[in-house]
Here is the input.
Amino acid sequence: MKEPHLAALKCPQCGKKLQFSRESASNESVEEGQIVCEKGHTWPIHGEIPSLVYPPISAKDAKWIKKYDEMAESYDESVKQYDDWLGINMMKEREQLAMFVPIEGPTRIIDVSIGTAANFVALHNRFKGQMGRFNIHGMDLSTRMLGMAKRKMSELGIDASLTHGSVFNIPYQSNFFDIVLHTGGINTFSDIHGALKEMLRIARSEGMVLVIDEGLSPRMRNTEKGKEIIKANSLFAARPPLEFLPEKASNVEITYIMNETFYQMVFKK
Ligand SMILES: C[S@@+](CC[C@H](N)C(=O)[O-])C[C@H]1O[C@@H](n2cnc3c(N)ncnc32)[C@H](O)[C@@H]1O
Ligand SMILES: [Zn+2]
Here is the structure.
């Protein structure tokens, strides 16, 4: 991990700034080492990824993370099953995220719960040689998912900063990102309001938060196909979590994407 990555982070225990510990200080990227806050809280770095998880995760979340760790290797393959079943091309649909990205200028983007980095691969496909203007970060609570994201992005030459952290206490500075992106986890989070509040906190003023997850459109849920989908996978019965939006969220917009099988909730700070 490099200095600009560090500057975007904060201590998840006390909120103070972080620096590399003396032994880890270097002009190069730090592969293994430690970072420390002004109050002396220390956090490990493994394989260039700082681990800033605090407080320890709840038993319910730990159960999900164990599942994600176990499925990390096969995750991309299993998600592909959605394509035929729902009549979509998920990777192509992810490229549509580009419409929320300013057409020029430096842009800070974080993918909260980055998984295997499919959204950044899609952005890379879309923006090709322009990726250099993006300062991109990915955070996840599953170290195996982060490992997959790292491998895929290095194969494609995508330069992103990866952080091990939880959506309930995101170890990033407030008011930092132009775009905060989250796809695919919120429906099963134990504290949806807490997660959305944290996503809005790290967005800059006028910044945008995009939250996408399984959930059929009102029209789709009344069709035969819709009923069949919900019967096969109850996650698709979910609705956009409007009741959990933070008070400060503005310009809230709900649309349905991927053949009306996923909701897309967008709001501003
Ligand atoms: C269904 S996957 C979606 C991955 C990716 N965003 C995508 O669209 O393919 C859900 C992700 O949420 C992550 N996750 C679950 N609980 C989390 C938490 N409390 N904080 C951060 N990430 C979490 C999982 O590790 C997993 O990578
Ligand atoms: Zn601290």
Summary: The two ends are 29 Å apart (CA to CA). The first helix runs from residue 3 to 8. The pocket of S-adenosylmethionine (ligand 1) is lined by residues 61, 64-65, 68, 113-115, 118, 140-142, 145, 166-168, 183-185 (CB under 6 Å).
